[in-house]
Amino acid sequence: MAARPGPSRAEPPGTAGRAGQAAGTAQSAQRVEDLMEMVKKLQKAGSLEPRVEVLINRINEVQQAKKKASEELGEARTVWEALQKELDSLSGEKVRLKETLSKKQETLRTLRLHCQEKESEAQRKQTLLQDCKERISALNLEIEEEKRKQRQLRLDFEEQLEDLMGQHKDLWEFHRPEQLAQEIGTLDSSKEQLLKEEKLVEAKLEDVKHRLCSQFGAKGCSAITEGLFLRSQEAAAAVHLFEEENRRAQELLDSTAQRHEQLQEKCKQLQQKKQRLKEELENFGVQVIAQAQDKQEDMASPGEASQRGETLPTELPRAAHQAGPDTVLGKEAPPCPGACAMGFRK
C-alpha cells in the first residue's frame, strides 16, 4: 500500500493536517464500502462460506491500513507541529527583517537628505566663490582704472606746471630791469629824435617867416606868411610829420594799453594758477611726507622712526613750500625781482 504524501512547505500547516486526515478517513471508508459490496455480491451468488477467509484477510488488511493511516496521521501531526514552529520562527524573523528594513530605509532617507543638503551647500559655496571672483576682478579693474586716471592727472599737472613755469619765465623775461631799461632807452631816443625834428622844423619855419617879412614888409607879413606857409612844402611836411607822430603816438598808446590789459589778465591768471598750484603742492607735500614716513617706518627701527617722525612733519612742508614748483619738477628757479614785485613769490 503506497504511503500518503505529507503537506508541502508552501501550504499552511493546519491545511496540510486536515487534508491528510480527510484522505485517510476517505480511504478507510472506501475499503469498507468495497468489502460490503463484495459481501453483497457473494450473498447474491450463494457462495459466502468459501470467502470468509478472504474477508478476514481483507479485514486484517483494512485494520493494518487503518493502523498505518493512524501512524501516518501522527507523523503528519508531528510534521505539522514542526512546520508550525518553523512558521512561527519565520514570522518572527519576518517581523525583525521588516523592522530592520524600515530602519535601513529611514537611515537611507536621512542619508539622502543629508547628501542633498551637502550638495546644495556646495553649490551655494561655489556660486558665492564665483561671485567673489567676479567682484575681485571688477575691483582690480577699478583699481587699474583709478591708477591710470591718477597717472594721467599727474602728467596733466606736470604739463600745466611746465606751461605755468614757461609763462612765468616769459613774463619775467619781459619785466626784467634790463629789458625795461632797454625799452625806456628806445622810447627816450625816439622822443629826442622827434624833439630834434620838431626844433628843426620850427627853425625852418622861422627862417621862412623872416624871409617873407623882409620881402613884403611888416603889414602883410602875417597874412602872406600864413598863406605861403600853408601852401608851402614845409607846411605840408610839418602837417604830415605831425599827423605821423600823432598816429604813432596813438598806436603806441593803444598797444601799450592793450599790452597792459593783457599783462593784467595774465597776472590774474598766474595768480589763480599760483594759488591752485600752491594748494596742490601743499597736498602733494603732505602725500610725500606720508610716503616718506611710511618708507622710513618700513626701513628704520621703531626708535629711529619715532625720532625722524618728530622732525619730518615740520621740515618737509616748509621745504616743499619754499622750494616752489620749479624745485618740485627738478628745475632751479631763476631770480625774478619783477615777478616778485607783482606778487609771484615762491
Question: How would you summarize what this structure contains?
Answer:
With 346 residues, this protein is an all-alpha fold. The chain has helices at 13-45, 52-174, 177-216, 221-231, 233-299, 302-328, 337-341. The protein has a domain at 177-210.
Description:
The chain is an all-alpha fold and 346 residues long. 88% of the residues lie in helices and 0% in strands. It has a domain at 177-210. It contains seven helices and no strands. The termini are far apart. Residues 1-17 and 301-346 have low confidence and may be disordered.
Radius of gyration: 71 Å
SSE ordering:
HHHHHHH
Largest sheet: none
Cα distance spanning the termini:
144 Å
Rounded mean pLDDT is 73
> Count of helical segments?
7
Unreliable spans: 1-17, 301-346
- Total beta strand runs: 0
The structure class reads mainly alpha
The level of helicity is over 70%
Strand content: under 5%
Shape: rod-shaped
Protein name: Synaptonemal complex central element protein 1
InterPro entries: SYCE1 (IPR026676)
Subunit structure: Homodimer. Found in a complex with SYCP1 and SYCE2. Interacts with SYCP1, SYCE2 and SYCE3. Interacts with SIX6OS1.
Subcellular location: Chromosome; Nucleus
